[in-house]
Amino acid sequence: MIEVEFRLARPGGFTLECGFAVPARGVTALFGRSGAGKTTIIQAVAGVVRPDAGRIVVDGEVFFDSARGIDVPIEARRVGYVFQDSRLFPHLKVEGNLRYGERRSRAAERRIGFDAVVDLLGIGPLLARRPHTLSGGERQRVAIGRALLAQPRLLLMDEPLAALDGARKAEILPYLERLRDTMGLPILYVSHALDEVLRLADTLVALREGRQVAAGPLAQVMSRPDMLPVLGRFDLGTLLDCEVVRHDAAYGLSTLAFSGGELRVPQVERAVGGKVRARVRARDVAIALAKPEGVSVSNLLPAVVEEVRAQEGPYADIALRVGETQLAAMVTRESVERLGLRPGLPVWAMVKSVAVEGSRPEFLDAGL
Amino acid sequence: MIEVEFRLARPGGFTLECGFAVPARGVTALFGRSGAGKTTIIQAVAGVVRPDAGRIVVDGEVFFDSARGIDVPIEARRVGYVFQDSRLFPHLKVEGNLRYGERRSRAAERRIGFDAVVDLLGIGPLLARRPHTLSGGERQRVAIGRALLAQPRLLLMDEPLAALDGARKAEILPYLERLRDTMGLPILYVSHALDEVLRLADTLVALREGRQVAAGPLAQVMSRPDMLPVLGRFDLGTLLDCEVVRHDAAYGLSTLAFSGGELRVPQVERAVGGKVRARVRARDVAIALAKPEGVSVSNLLPAVVEEVRAQEGPYADIALRVGETQLAAMVTRESVERLGLRPGLPVWAMVKSVAVEGSRPEFLDAGL
Amino acid sequence: QAQPALTVFAAASLTNAFQDIGKLYKAKTGQEVAFSFAASSALAKQLEAGAPAAIFASADNKWMDYTEAKDLTLKATRVTPIGNSLVLIMPADTATPVTFDASFDWLAFLGTDGRIATGLTDSVPAGIYAKAALTSLGAWDKVQPRIVGAESVRAALALVERGEARAGIVYSTDAAIAKNVKVVATFPAGSHPPVEYPFEIVKGQDNPATRAFFDFLTGPEAKVVYAKYGFVVK
Amino acid sequence: MLTPEEWTAVALSLRVAFWATFWSLPVAVLTAFVLARSRFAGKSLLDGLVYLPLVLPKVVVGYLLLLTLGGRGLIGQYLDAWFGIKLIFTTAGATVAAAVVSFPLTVNAIRLALEAVDRGLETAARTLGASRLDVFFSVTLPLMLPGILSGALLAIASALGEFGATITFVSNVEGQTRTIPLAIYSATHMPDGDAMALRLTLVSVVLALGSLLLASLCDRRIRVMIGRA
Amino acid sequence: MLTPEEWTAVALSLRVAFWATFWSLPVAVLTAFVLARSRFAGKSLLDGLVYLPLVLPKVVVGYLLLLTLGGRGLIGQYLDAWFGIKLIFTTAGATVAAAVVSFPLTVNAIRLALEAVDRGLETAARTLGASRLDVFFSVTLPLMLPGILSGALLAIASALGEFGATITFVSNVEGQTRTIPLAIYSATHMPDGDAMALRLTLVSVVLALGSLLLASLCDRRIRVMIGRA
Ligand SMILES: Nc1ncnc2c1ncn2[C@@H]1O[C@H](COP(=O)(O)OP(=O)(O)OP(=O)(O)O)[C@@H](O)[C@H]1O
Ligand SMILES: Nc1ncnc2c1ncn2[C@@H]1O[C@H](COP(=O)(O)OP(=O)(O)OP(=O)(O)O)[C@@H](O)[C@H]1O
Ligand SMILES: [Mg+2]
Ligand SMILES: [Mg+2]
């Protein structure tokens, strides 16, 4: 478990209060607007700032406990910290920067290899360069590599991918996922980008102006109605826990079963019977009154309208029931009227398979 | 016109060669992967680095011309530069930072007001703070304000929004658009984020490892097949130049006409007859063999399959002809087979209105 | 007062005597006298650079000869009212009287690492005299490695007072005012050039006001002061 | 506590230290800027020249001053003839001596501070419409204030302690050039001068600690101001 | 060109300057670090103490050294009795005098450089597993190298020029303590010493320019190394 619970007042009026206990496995995303206090939490966990009062415990080891007067020094916490500004050592070449933490780790604990990291981050050609000659994205890639090679037992990442281009991001994300999955390396991850969060996170801590709005498993937090202002409307969606039932190698598709039916998605790497998670964005769900025939949309699910929330603007939020699962859909108000959508009406939900998203590596090709 | 044409070699082997002439109106996006040379171009235009040879002319004024020995000093170029790292003055409070450039501008040229900028960027509460107490996003907002208030005639923005959260981004983007539209303030804009580029840019300059891959009007560049590796597959789409034909205030919808038919989109602010641009992502276009009835999808366009490109993986790219317009669609290979899609087949394209995207402020609510 | 102050350049060793005389003079005539006390060499160089002093009182003849040769001071006004004698001193607690005869063994006297402190032997007057005296006594070659040259006689005195040096060669005036040292021998007058303090009026300053003080410096009231501080009054 | 004569020396020392610092500081800032930021042919020479007063015995420095700025000196004669400025024997001369001796220290301190100023901020200022000169005054100078303060402190301290160059250049005249160190020197030549030397030494120490305290107070405020606290 | 006597003085000056710098530099780095980075009760006092040799007339400094480190001095007597270390009248003593006098300059230069080191980098190093000490040696020290170099240069320069404290503490013993400044001083006090003074002054100037040139070469390399070129 990672238990974080503290109070910290900054000169200037900002006060942060938070308290969450999340598994020391997988990725915990800290999500919130600029100035919400995300970096401050990361800093407290790393030991860079000292809370006024509280406790920080990672995996049973107490990092900080104001009541017991414990404050473990930064270097003894063994957290890898990727800073919002990359903070490369200007006097060392890229290679020296990468090796800095590696040299200081115990040889027995070196699970993350130098060459693997260099390859992945595409920084091979930069090894002999000086940090000030690097572009913004190059710098950040080196910073990530440096933190990884320090063989941390907890990785803190403060918007690590913000300076990276989409393709590079897409390349690095799976590696982070792999790290998380294969090494049991827990990650505290700050990001504004919901797609990153959804891809990576198992657990979500949402912050707003120094207050903790919600904390818990991703799916649970995402479906809370009070998250709407935090997440923004267009990212609303439904998370589905699924089991792999079939692979269709010829078409490169897999079939997933969830409590309300089946979904066809691009082939996942998990074996039949494995558990995976899928995300359906509300805006990617269309509604039909009768089962549509001859359409390219391959995921057609029988459903019942549960609730229609007409909202300002052109859109309406629809809650559908598919089996035991509630599925969010978003359609225009005009469509609600034209189709006569009302609670209790049996309909078909059309989900384009390409819009299925997941939080596991298997879904890499499906998402954004 | 903004004419940029130069050669610049960096110690360490990187050489940048570019040459483009874009209108000194609207937003020109510099797009490319990390290390492609985007920042270098911005720096050359600002006068921060000196090209080895070439010409840089903005709106008829020669900033740099190696042949004629011209190199206008930075401060005389009057470009507002938002740096990748915010570079706030640590000895000035936030207000002092904002006023720095404003004070140095000619009073007659002050078109951008202090209060408006402060309001927009939400930095009112920060005015009396010192830069080192700001969070990453706060810093960047102040840096944007500072550049705007210097009343530049050309704005250079180097990933200005990378550190901002989605909501803040969404708030600032329209203001940038408004600046661009109402003040004729041209913007050179570096970004990795395709959605930003698509929202803002009129013109696109694509770079790859120091070489200019393409330069020209956004729509034109976006549809070039050689852009696929630059853009990434899931962002492929079609840009449609449309005219507003009707507003439907009751539903909050507008109807747009393009050469292949009509689209219903969330209400745009432009008057009837006005020109707007819409973007349809290939992954948001589904195909039906017959006109679907009773579906929430309100944009149904009769089309003809022009080309089916089966690709590796589960997907196939389909080129549809809708009137005179080519529309890209993306479906699974399984669907291609199931529906028997082949060139010449008449079909219906289903475009969810909520997936319509544009490059003008009118489409703010429609996009991502 | 109406008259501008008169500036007198005097060797640092004259500090006390001249200050007293200046006060006496002011009490008597109301005329203010300003002094600049520094090494004779520095003062001579300053005169050469055009320093507007009226009177130069040197601690040795060489620097007065120098200013004369450069036509800076008036040779005709030269007087030498006072002199000094050169003495060997030791810390009071270890002092034993010595006589400079042929049998005097300097090295035995100094012990294994004893030192003799004096002024710099090539530039500070007391040191120059000490070198001359030791040479004429035939001891210089033996003693030379044991000589430590201080920046001024005062500094040499301090080294002996603190027992850092086993002995010192200084002026009798200095020895007279020091607390913890004893004079163990006086160098014979013939062993070194006479220690003299020549005074001259600076060229272009020979006016009644200067003359008045210059005469006062060699007058009976001044001589009382000199004697008080242990100078040999001629 | 102190005799009037001693008070005179203390007051003079303070005046000399203040004015020496006051006049040399701007020149030092300029020199540091030129040395740190520009490249030209004779730069190494200028660099050497600046450090010269430090490396030479102060007596030699004083002697060189005497040769150049004395009443018959290379420059001194014209200073006197054209502007009526007399340096030898005067407090002004003592100030010059103190300024010259402290100059290398001041320049060094300021230069180090200048080199620590982030040039990216200067570039940013220029894109905001500030000329080089404007940037210097509005960005560079404020950011190097701690260094300037440190330089000023060194200047004051070394001016308070300056002896060799002063006595050689402008002699030891009470009320004009007899600063504390010269008074201490004179005192050691008086039979009963030990007490006076000790008193003046204590005054020196107190002044030094006082200016240090003042400097560290200023420093803290400046650091808060420029956000480097 | 130079007389053997003068060569001896030059060689001695170089030795003294080198060893004074060599020994004082680590102490200066430590002192600067403590002054810049820690807060404790007597800090202002330590601060004052460090600057004292600068503010006091060098002759007084020499006298204080004599009182404390002389053969009968407070500390000196034990140095001699217990370790057989004699400072007075020896080259070692001249080195100590030079080191003490240059100490404030060295500390100041290093301190300014230290304050310019980005503490964010130090924090980053600690998150990478480096202890405070390790951070100091692997990050802070390399980044402040230009300041240390500048401090060393100041130390060498002021050691080459040191006169007052040296002559007062260890006097003028040829081959032992007679450094260039002492030789120059002697020369200027001889009516016919001008030529010798000039020669030795030129040697001083050449040494100063030489060490400056060396320093600026080092500086350039260091700056390239630490990426601040
Ligand atoms: N001062 C320099 N010296 C040497 N090489 C440099 C220097 N500055 C940049 N480069 C190199 O030039 C190339 C282009 O850098 P630039 O900063 O323009 O990239 P970019 O497109 O802005 O990348 P990013 O998106 O990561 O900021 C990079 O490979 C970089 O390493
Ligand atoms: N050293 C400081 N002194 C005073 N206030 C501070 C300091 N550091 C941060 N703050 C304030 O604390 C609040 C939270 O800052 P924090 O850096 O944790 O935000 P964040 O959530 O990381 O934001 P962003 O996404 O913009 O980086 C902000 O309002 C910021 O202004
Ligand atoms: Mg942050
Ligand atoms: Mg860049």
Summarize this structure as a short list of keywords or feature phrases.
heteropentamer; A: 368 residues; alpha+beta; Rossmann fold; OB fold (Dihydrolipoamide Acetyltransferase, E2P); 2 domains; six-stranded mixed beta sheet; five-stranded antiparallel beta sheet; 21 strands; 23% helix; D: 229 residues; mainly alpha; MetI-like fold; 0% strand; binds adenosine-5'-triphosphate; binds magnesium ion; MetI-like_sf (chains D, E)
Give your account of this protein's structure.
The complex is a heteropentamer, with two copies of chain A (368 residues), one copy of chain C (234 residues) and two copies of chain D (229 residues). Chain A is α+β, with helices and mostly antiparallel strands. Chain A is 23% helix and 36% strand. Chain A folds into two domains: 2-230, P-loop containing nucleotide triphosphate hydrolases (Rossmann fold, 3-Layer(aba) Sandwich), CATH 3.40.50; 237-365, Beta Barrel (OB fold (Dihydrolipoamide Acetyltransferase, E2P)). Chain A has helices spanning 38-46, 74-77, 94-103, 114-121, 136-149, 166-183, 194-200, 218-222, 228-231, 333-339; strands spanning 2-9, 15-22, 27-32, 53-58, 61-65, 70-71, 79-82, 154-158, 187-190, 201-208, 211-217, 237-248, 253-258, 261-266, 275-281, 285-288, 299-310, 315-322, 325-332, 346-351, 356-357. The radius of gyration of chain A is 23 Å and the shape is globular. Residues 354-368 of chain A have low confidence and may be disordered. Helix content of chain C is 38%, strand content 24%. Chain C has 234 residues and is α/β, with parallel strands linked by helices. Chain D has a single domain (4-225), classed as MetI-like fold, CATH 1.10.3720.10. Chains in contact: A-B, A-E, B-D, C-D, C-E, D-E. The structure holds adenosine-5'-triphosphate (2 copies) and magnesium ion (2 copies). One magnesium ion is lined by residues 38-39, 84, 158 of chain B.
Largest β sheet strand count, sense and barrel closure of chain C: 6 strands, mixed
- Assign the structural class of chain C, choosing from mainly alpha, mainly beta, alpha/beta, alpha+beta, or little secondary structure: alpha/beta
Give the beta-strand count of chain A.
21
The radius of gyration computed from the alpha-carbon positions of chain A, rounded to a whole number of angstroms, is 23 Å
Percent range of helical residues of chain A: 10-25%
Strand content of chain C: 15-25%
CATH fold topology of the largest domain in chain A:
Rossmann fold
Strand order of the largest sheet of chain C: 2-1-3-10-4-11
Number of helices, where a helix is a run of at least 4 consecutive DSSP H or I residues of chain C: 10
- State the domain count of chain A: 2
Bound ligands = adenosine-5'-triphosphate, magnesium ion
